[in-house]
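User: Just a sanity check before I run the rest of the batch. Below are the structure tokens for the first item. I only need the designed sequence back.
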């Protein structure tokens, strides 16, 4: 039976982030009361504070979009933040949700939960079948733990807590800091700066050969709301775009949109990470959900946002 959001008190944990911001935008037409707490109001790593805030604000549904996130270098160099802070944030919210009787909760993971050499595209049942990619194993372990925690609350207490696994995301509100961002916003900044400086080339990390799938964040938000209303299973659900590109191809498209006409060069001292990371989203597609924003169109929208808000 569908879960109705209308009239409910819905907490978007992490509403200031790219994903949480998109979920808030998507929820605005749903007739629910959207609850938000800034970091200054609530530190999600502190259990007692989370308990007090949730007991006071009484959410009936929760989206967990709060997490320490970042690109390949940030993941590889800040293992404590990615493991410990994420475990604390998700543990505090999920455990307290049960205590204060939250009816429905959605935890968001990441495609890096799957084995480094998982068969492609990666279906949900590839979960826990092999070793992880070393550059993001700390983040992956935290996300794996969150999925299992939702499953545990379902089994032991009959809670309707579910998990969605998004692919690589991009869009308005992204992180454009070159040392901690993901590849797509990084390439946008690099192409933009190279165009303004009239540089002959821009530098990509690694070999440019890894394959990645990219989903526009407003599509992700739409899928999250769709699953919150329509899905109640123990197994997590992949949320992907459906096709991938090499990092070189991505850079060419970004350069075209930005208007940078120079060459691409490669910094082989930086890691490639997973060779290919394409989700099998057949399960979600069979429920009736598909993405709307194509890669080129999404890059153009994200670049327009960057020019207005972050350049
Ligand atoms: O997006 P990204 O940082 O993370 O990098 P992952 C994807 C690919 O793009 C890697 C290459 O092969 C990078 O080496 N790349 C090329 C660049 N140029 C750049 C650049 O200027 N900046 C960045 N950041 N990359 C992350 C995981 O993996 O993806 C997380 O570490 C999470 O755990 C997230 O799963 C979605 O796709 O490799």
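Assistant: Here's the designed sequence for the first item:
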């Amino acid at each position: 039976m569908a879960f109705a959001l209308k009239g409910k008190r819905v907490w978007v944990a992490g509403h200031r982030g790219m994903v949480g911001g998109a979920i808030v935008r998507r929820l605005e037409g749903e007739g629910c009361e959207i609850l938000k707490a800034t970091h200054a109001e609530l530190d999600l790593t502190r259990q007692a504070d989370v308990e007090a805030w949730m007991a006071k604000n009484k959410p009936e549904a929760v989206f967990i979009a709060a997490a320490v996130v970042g690109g390949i270098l940030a993941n590889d160099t800040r293992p404590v933040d990615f493991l410990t802070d994420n475990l604390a944030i998700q543990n505090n919210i999920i455990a307290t949700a049960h205590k204060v009787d939250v009816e429905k909760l959605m935890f968001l993971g990441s495609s890096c939960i799957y084995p480094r050499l998982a068969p492609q595209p990666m279906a949900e049942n590839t979960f826990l079948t092999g070793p992880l990619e070393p550059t993001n194993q700390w983040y992956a372990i935290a996300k794996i733990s969150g999925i299992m925690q939702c499953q545990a609350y379902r089994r032991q207490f009959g809670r309707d807590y579910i998990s969605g696994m998004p692919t690589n995301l991009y869009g308005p509100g992204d992180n454009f800091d070159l040392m901690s961002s993901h590849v797509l916003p990084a390439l946008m900044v690099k192409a933009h700066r190279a165009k303004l400086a009239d540089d002959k080339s821009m530098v990509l990390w690694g070999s440019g050969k890894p394959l990645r799938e990219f989903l526009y964040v407003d599509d992700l938000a739409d899928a999250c709301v769709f699953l919150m209303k329509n899905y109640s299973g123990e197994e997590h659900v992949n949320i992907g775009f459906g096709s991938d590109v090499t990092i070189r191809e991505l850079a060419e498209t970004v350069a075209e949109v930005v208007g940078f006409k120079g060459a691409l060069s490669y910094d082989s001292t930086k890691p490639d990470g997973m060779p290919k990371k394409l989700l099998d989203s057949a399960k979600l597609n069979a429920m009736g959900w598909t993405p709307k924003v194509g890669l080129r169109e999404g890059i153009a929208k994200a670049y327009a946002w960057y020019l207005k808000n972050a350049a």
